[in-house]
# Entry
Amino acid sequence: MSATDSKSSTSKPGVKVMTLIEAVTDALRTEMANDDRVVVFGEDVGKKGGVFGATMGIQDQFGETRCFDTPLSECGIIGAAVGMAVYGMRPVAEIQFLDFIYPAFDQIVSEAAKMRYRSGGEYTCPMVIRSPYGGGIRGGHYHSQSSEAYFCHTPGLKVVIPSTPADAKGLLIAAIRDEDPVMFLEPKKIYRHGKGEVPLGEHVVPIGKGRIAREGTDCTVVAYGAMVSVCEQAAEMAAQQGRSIEVLDLRTLVPLDEPMLLESVRKTGRCVVVYEAPKTCGYGAEIAAIVAEKCIEYLEGPVVRVAGFDTPFPYTLEHLYMPDVARVLAGIDKSFHW
Amino acid sequence: MSLDLHTIIDSDGKAPKAKDPNLPAAELQKLYRLMVTTRLMDDRGLALQRQGRIGFYLQSTGQEASHLGTAYALKQSDWLFPAYRQPGILLLREVPIDQIVCEWFGNSGDTSKGRQMPVHYSFRRANFVSISSPIGTQLTQAAGAGMAARIRGDDTVFMTFCGDGGTSSNDFHTGLNFAGVYKAPVVFVVENNGWAISVPGHKQTASESYAIKAHAYGMPGVRVDGNDILAVYAVTKAAVDRARRGEGPTLIETVTYRIASHSSSDDASRYHDAKVHESWKKKDPIQRFQKYLEHKKLWNAKFEAEVIEGAKAAIQAAVTAAEAMPNPAPETLFDDVYMNPTAQLKEQKQQLLDLMAKGAVGSEVGHFPL
# Structure
């Protein structure tokens, strides 16, 4: 039976084909059964099961004490999560859309991120903030933002972004088990996009380790989240033009898997980094800086950034805003001809 | 301490003479027409979304009296800082339906240049400040604008809206607190429709009402039957007059009900209590006002037909025209970030245009999938 046959429930023993969002639910179910300190809460996550369905069935299975709906207050959700984590629980808080997280920014940056450091290690904040991020669903300014850079710029936070169902499950379980606060950003554009095999039961993908999505020799394309498959498509087209593209899926932005990145660029000599967030001071700028600092003698050309524009995320013209195969190919081209 | 629920029109459409605000006949019929047109516009908006012709829609069904009755108490020069469920106010302020519908399509006729999701209106001509999706932000802004009016000595009054969910936001506390401290001429309207998407009122607050929260901020709180347009108008007019006299802000809680789902992305049948839902349908604000007008001999079947046909024709013409309009030009993507574009923006614009000239640019368009 084909691994991508959506009618089959298992293609191999211990594995199930599911979407990325189903993998998120599976991770929550698995870890809540494993650790009774884990609680899940946010707006609409209980009875409704989340506006995207990420927590579907969780309240039914674990009860309202462990999975509940909160008042409409991001600051309240995250501040309460900090308090719970400090007291010894493992809260997994949901922010309905990353665009709505800003009222909680103080609790994240001033409190969660600094709790361990400021207390000399006496108090820690093991919590996960789950939130759908990114564009591609006609959500306009306030349902499409890629705000990961704000959180990558905050020492004390980890930032994790899966691009496949298996990684979504494995990284979320790892995030819940992590002793530090983790931002777990889910690329909503590909929540239901494609399906993938996900190991059943215990499945952990280590935080801080990237993945080579496609091997190549001529150019390294660095991506995360929904951009990974765009880069894979671009790599396929580039191959037809005789160029062998290596695509890296970072999976964790902070702490970055530098060895994977540097080894790849030393091999290929070219680097293009693709991110849908606004270009200026986006996460890709950090990749470009690290590569320039540590790989300069290996580079055949400049590090190229293919990114969103420095504008708010538009509604009607969304298709022009998000980096697509054409823009990635143009970026690859620039790394060859400059 | 409990706050009484103000009401004027009973379920049979009768209003005690002492409480009736005695609006002129033409105004009463105008209000009715506005309510019906709002509802028909909402119906059409949802239908267009279901047909895939627009990307998203959010209705105000059942809350027409709540937002029209309040806004009707303002002068044209007063400002609104709305949330996203008060579309009737645009019609009240004579924004052409054509422009409203262009916003749904985000086309080149949209005054907001296709920037935002449907129903996130901005109409300067109507003193209707740009709507955003984050909850409650408008409340603090309304307080600030009120502060500005006091500094300048203007007699402008500011009206701002949020839902029961919005009262849990940081901005509810901050906005009301500032307005109280600075005696800002603001009328805060909490449309208590019972739901914040799927979260019911009893999970939103432990307070006995939303109106009573006003006392914590040093302002009067008023509870009114939100499906009774005359009662809504009467209490709001008192609050608006208070503000204009320099006596400061008021919080009005309209007790109403969200008949539709939260938006085109939500299916409320999954969490609504069907019995409660049906009981609220019987308290429909349009039907109640219709009965009132009938008693006053201001409504009959002929009038009804004329109102409905007029509204449908206007909406249809607007949809036909809007659908024929092109998207905003790609160049417009880079405008209005700042007053003057930066060098980086100019460079990025040129890069996109160069790529488009080569014929290879994005065509993949997703849909709001919920």
In short: Chain A touches chain B through 48 residues (CB under 8 Å). The CA atoms of residues 80 and 221 of chain A lie 39 Å apart. The two ends of chain A are 48 Å apart (CA to CA).
